[in-house]
Write a structure and sequence with these properties.
The chain has 317 residues and is α/β, with parallel strands linked by helices. The protein is 50% helix and 16% strand. The chain is built from eleven helices and eight strands. It has an eight-stranded mixed β-sheet, sandwiched between helices. Helix 6 packs parallel to helix 9. The two termini are 20 Å apart. The mean pLDDT is 86. Bound molecules: uridine-5'-diphosphate and magnesium ion (MG).
């Protein structure tokens, strides 16, 4: 790798931050505790903070660190673009032979790094991913819906999306280049990791609570995120729409035959408009639902076609 000794490798640590002023220096300290262990494996660190349009002192804290240590880098966005955009920016900025994604809140323990690196260097894996063992400590309703979501999406999508998988992931340059070759605007990273493939080792660990700052997720955001995932990695809802259409056509056909036969045989004038009103409301409801599903895909297509940049940089070093 550039300018390093023959056997030295560079590890890029990417940390997306949104209002994490307390965590930026804390993360730095905790990460550097692994420096010696990594040096033993001839690995140097570069640390890339992505400031996702923070409104607090995050940028100032990153600049402070930079003054002490020029291995610290930053890409600062012009506004909040979301974690997925942060990940993409970090992967683009990274120079490393190995690249790892970590949260600023230390829910991704840096102490796992030497194990992850060993899996790539000694066991020949292309990437090492992590998942939480349990959903302990999570609100009951939230884990219920999370489980349903993973079951559903794995049934209707050809891409494997692992339940409880975190974004804490170490990858080789080849994997990162593959991810960067996917320039889509709607980035559902959990699906993208599965889609690119490569040999992946899974490590599990107990969920660690965030100690400083607050989580950026609430139930509604998670729900929209789940919908994004389904739209980005499955077209099953579209097939579902076609099947419903087909069922209703068949049903209508059977009803028509039934009514004609009844009228011819019994001379019964078709009576009863309440049933008619019910049928019309039902069918128009189903039509609107199906139109809505098609509309969801169209709105995603609209955003892709506009081809807007995934993020805008305000400052970078
Ligand atoms: N994050 C971000 N942009 C956002 C929201 C979150 O860069 O719009 C970062 C955040 O600073 C943290 C990581 O993504 O480093 C995970 O966020 P959080 O801890 O809120 O999520 P959780 O761990 O609760 O899933
Ligand atoms: Mg967190």
């Amino acid at each position: 790798m550039i300018g390093l000794g023959i056997d030295m490798k560079l590890l890029s640590v990417i940390v997306p931050c949104y209002n994490e002023e307390e965590n930026v220096p804390y993360f730095y300290e905790e990460l550097m505790k692994q420096e010696a262990a990594l040096l033993e494996r001839d690995i140097l660190i570069e640390l890339i903070y992505i400031d996702d349009g923070s409104k607090d002192g995050t940028v100032a804290e990153i600049k402070n660190l930079r003054e002490k240590d020029d291995r610290v880098h930053m890409v600062s966005f012009s506004r909040n673009f979301g974690k997925e955009a942060g990940i993409y920016a970090g992967l683009k900025k990274a120079n490393g032979d190995l690249i790892v994604l970590m949260d600023a809140d230390l829910q991704d323990p840096p102490s796992l790094l030497p194990t992850m690196v060993a899996a790539v260097l000694d066991e020949g894996y292309d990437s090492v991913a992590t998942r939480r063992e349990t959903r302990k400590g999570e609100p009951v309703i939230r884990s219920f819906f999370a489980r349903r979501f993973y079951r559903l999406i794995n049934r209707i999508s050809g891409t494997e999306i692992v339940d409880g998988a975190r974004d804490y992931r170490l990858m080789t340059r080849a994997v990162v280049d593959a991810i960067l070759s996917m320039p889509e605007y709607n980035r559902f990273t959990k699906g993208i990791f599965g889609w690119v493939g490569f040999k992946t080792k899974w490590l599990s660990y107990e969920n660690i609570e965030r100690t400083k700052g607050v989580t950026k997720w609430n139930f509604w955001k998670l729900f929209l995120y789940a919908l994004d995932g389904i739209l980005a990695f499955s077209t099953a809802p579209l097939a579902f729409v076609s099947v419903i259409g087909l069922i209703f056509c068949l049903l209508a056909f059977v009803l028509i035959v039934f009514i004609i036969v009844r009228t011819v045989v019994f001379g019964d004038p078709t009576s009863g408009w309440p049933s008619l009103v019910c049928i019309i409301s039902l069918i128009s409801g189903v039509q609107l639902l199906c139109l809505g599903i098609v509309g969801q895909y169209m709105s995603k297509m609209y955003m892709e076609v506009k081809n807007r940049p995934i993020y805008l940089t305000k400052e970078e070093f």
